[in-house]
Specification:
Layout lengths: L2 H17 L2 E6 L5 H13 L2 E4 L3 H8 L15 E6 L4 H12 L4 E7 L2 E3 L1 H9 L3 H42 L1
Antiparallel strand pairs: 1-3, 1-4, 2-3, 4-5
Helix pairs in contact: 1-3, 4-5
Length: 171
C-alpha cells in the first residue's frame, strides 16, 4: 500500500469516526470468511457496515476526533462495526458475539462517549430508532382511537336499543 492509498484510508476512517452514531471495536481472530460475510450481511440489513483496517492507520484517523479515546482498543486483529443509528451496530455485534465466541467485543464509542464491553452491551439492549419511533407513534395514536371509540359508542348503543325494540314489537 503506497502513501496515497494510506492517506485515502485514513480519510475514509476519519469520516467513519465523525459521522457514525456508534463504532464498536472487536477482535475477530479465528472467524472464517463465511462468518465474516455473515456479519457484514447482518450489518447491511440494519444500515451499518463492517470495516477491517490497519490499527496504525485507524489511530492516525482518530487523532483530533471526539472519539479519540478509542485508540487504546486498537490492538491485535480488530474489526470496526459502525452505523448512523446509535444502537444498530451494537445490537448486531452483540448478537453475533453471543452466537460466535470467536468475535470478542472490546468496546467502542458513541459520539464522544467511550464505551467498554459492558457499555456496548448496554447500548445493544436499548431500543433501536425504529422501535422508539413506533412506540411514540402508538402513544400519539392511542388517544385518537380512544376518542373515536367514545364518539362511536353512543351511536352503537342507540342502534342496539332500537334493534331490541324492533324485535319486541315483531314478537
Amino acid at each position: 500500500m503506497d502513501r496515497a492509498q494510506k492517506e485515502k484510508v485514513v480519510e475514509e476512517l476519519g469520516q467513519i469516526f465523525e459521522s457514525s452514531g456508534v463504532v464498536v471495536v472487536a477482535h475477530y481472530e479465528g472467524l472464517t470468511v463465511a462468518e465474516m460475510q455473515d456479519l457484514r450481511a447482518q450489518m447491511r440489513e440494519v444500515g451499518g457496515s463492517v470495516r477491517v483496517a490497519k490499527n496504525r492507520l485507524a489511530k492516525i484517523a482518530l487523532q483530533g476526533k471526539p472519539c479519540e479515546s478509542m485508540a487504546d482498543l486498537l490492538t491485535g486483529m480488530t474489526v470496526l462495526a459502525y452505523s448512523e443509528d446509535p444502537v444498530a451496530a451494537a445490537k448486531v455485534v452483540d448478537g453475533y458475539a453471543k452466537k460466535n465466541d470467536k468475535l470478542v467485543i472490546l468496546g467502542g464509542t458513541m459520539g464522544e462517549t467511550a464505551l467498554d464491553q459492558a457499555g456496548v452491551k448496554a447500548v445493544a439492549a436499548m431500543p433501536s430508532r425504529e422501535e422508539l419511533i413506533a412506540s411514540i407513534v402508538s402513544c400519539i395514536g392511542a388517544p385518537a382511537s380512544n376518542i373515536a371509540g367514545a364518539i362511536g359508542a353512543p351511536a352503537s348503543n342507540i342502534a342496539g336499543i332500537l334493534s331490541t325494540l324492533e324485535e319486541r314489537e315483531a314478537a
